[in-house]
Amino acid sequence: MSDWGLEREKCFSLYEIPTNVSIDIKFEDIRYSVPQNGGKKDVIQGISGQFLSGELTAIMGPSGAGKSSLLNILTGFIEAEGNIQCTGPSQGKKGPKQHGKHSCYILQEDSLDSEFTVEEAMRYAAELKVSRCTPKKKKEFLIQNILDSLMLQSCKKTKCRMISGGQSKRLSVALELIGNPSVMFLDEPTTGLDSVSSHLVVTILKSLAQQGRTIICTIHQPSATIFESFDLVYAMAEGKCIYQGSSRNVISYLSSFGLSCPRYHNPADYLLEVASGEYGKFTDFMKISGIDGKWRNDYKNETSQMNCTFNIRENGTHRNYGTSPNELYKLWVLIQKSFKKMSRDWTISSLKLLLHFCVGTFLGLTFINVGNDASKMISNVGLMLISIVYLGYTSLMPAVLRFPSELNTLKKERYNNWYKLSTYYAAFLLVDIPMQMSFTLAYVSGSYLLSAQPLEFIRFFKLVLVLFLVCMVASSMGLFFGTVVNPVNGTFFGAISLALLLVVSGFLIFFTHMSNVMYSLTYISYISYAMEALAQATYGYNRPPLPCPESVDYCIFNSPTELLKEIGMDKPNYWKDITFLFFNFMFMRILAFCTLKKTISKV
Ligand SMILES: Nc1ncnc2c1ncn2[C@@H]1O[C@H](COP(=O)(O)OP(=O)(O)OP(=O)(O)O)[C@@H](O)[C@H]1O
């Protein structure tokens, strides 16, 4: 038997992964419109329907028919008018919140952790979803069972970025199966797959539906065999439902309008051609007939009667992994996962550390011995500014791109109850702190000695603290820009903000040379606070006069105090500046969290 034959054979004998809860979804008179050219466009025009547990449902229709919009309404990503009811737990709640905890949404783009193997990805998912009381052996059994069922055993040691498209889709399903969802929404699960892989994915979905789940997916042009696998076809055209019934009844339904599907023609293609208006304007009549329950499969209707009530099966054969771990444990898992990812991808940490060290060394060589020479004190202040700008830019720019690149993963994992956004954000912060600290240290270790800064621990510590906070403030600003505008504009805004704040930093034009109005602007520039703190750490706290070399005729400043006075940074404000930088960092992080939350709640 061919490989495909074997896989298929195995697929029909899937291990039982039954669900604990059966949920039917019923929606009535759903309407959704979007603003367009000063008016509004009706994307969904009062559609109704029922998706039952135990059924594999396909939402079909030509491009722009409103399939994704309907899916997003049912999952709760879009708010629309109308009524969504679910039989099942949380009956008191309204709309998609009713099934929220028991459902999962698998987006079209696979958002898998590229650095982990399939098995590792499954283990992390299990750590985040399965109760901590579950013994390790049982968790492992569960993982292997799901990998077996979805035919992923052969690639379980392969990194996620190396697996094929079909395996990626199956892995996305496998990761969600760990949480044993009762409702699965899938956005175009077969797009980009060849016919064999598409068939395998749909066969698996069908099998999962037969175990009591409600499986709903949007689909483009399925083959005739795939089309037949669907228990329910929900066809849409121009925001309306034109057919809702069994895939086997499509031909009879269409012939009731005098539309006869040519022999050897794929009924799915024919349905799409009719929906696209290729055979005339039938969609308005179909909108009325389409909701007629008689086109549903009779057998399924009987099943639906059984499932119409909330039904937690306590039968011993059904799995229950207890409550998912608490958020503190998830935080710990996410931190471990981030560090592991960093250790795998040398470009995340090692390359940056090396670059910071090299740039620090380069600047140290350029500004060699400026820190211990009275004639070069202004150059040393220049080095302080360059250090702030360098660390500011290198922290801000990657941060702008950080969340946009993870948005899909975040949306998926948050919606699918892997963790709360606050837990993810806290883990990100806790990993970011040592990272930024090590970047700062790598930079300083390259520049500090070469530029002959004072060999006093307290001054070294104070300098590192300022530069570290500069990294934290800049990266927080980057995160903020990356979550309010798109990445292109985010990098533009980030660069502009840094350039403007640089102007009022207190060095390109000294505080003492500024007009009162411009001086007041320095209060909002974190660079000016960082500059003052660095100048204080280096030259403040009664640092004795520096030697003026004999080769120089005249040193402008006799002592560090004179320099600080000239540049208007003579007040011992170090800890005040540190407090400002700290609160600036906290404020920007909180702001970035709020904007991130808003961004991921949108489609
Ligand atoms: N936020 C929006 N702003 C403007 N137009 C929108 C918005 N959301 C959806 N639309 C429009 O509504 C229509 C339906 O969109 P939707 O993405 O639901 O279609 P679809 O059937 O999933 O299409 P496809 O198969 O091509 O993905 C499209 O014409 C789309 O341009």
Automatic annotation (TrEMBL):
Ranges that cross the membrane: 353-371, 383-404, 424-451, 463-485, 491-511, 578-596
**How is this protein situated with respect to the membrane?**
Multi-pass membrane protein
Q: Which Pfam families match?
A: ABC2_membrane (PF01061), ABC2_membrane_7 (PF19055), ABC_tran (PF00005)
User: Could you tell me which residue ranges the ABC transporter domain spans?
Assistant: 25-263
Tell me the InterPro entries matching this sequence.
AAA+_ATPase, ABC2_TM, ABC_transporter-like_ATP-bd, ABC_transporter-like_CS, ABCG_dom, ABCG_transporters, P-loop_NTPase
Sorted alphabetically, the keyword list is: ATP-binding, Membrane, Nucleotide-binding, Transmembrane, Transmembrane helix, Transport
Keyword Membrane attached: yes
The record's GO CC annotations read: plasma membrane
Location of this chain's protein in the cell: Membrane
Give GO terms: molecular function aspect only. ABC-type transporter activity; ATP binding; ATP hydrolysis activity
Q: Which PROSITE patterns match?
A: ABC_TRANSPORTER_1, ABC_TRANSPORTER_2
Family membership: Belongs to the ABC transporter superfamily. ABCG family. Eye pigment precursor importer (TC 3.A.1.204) subfamily.
Its recorded name reads ABC transporter domain-containing protein
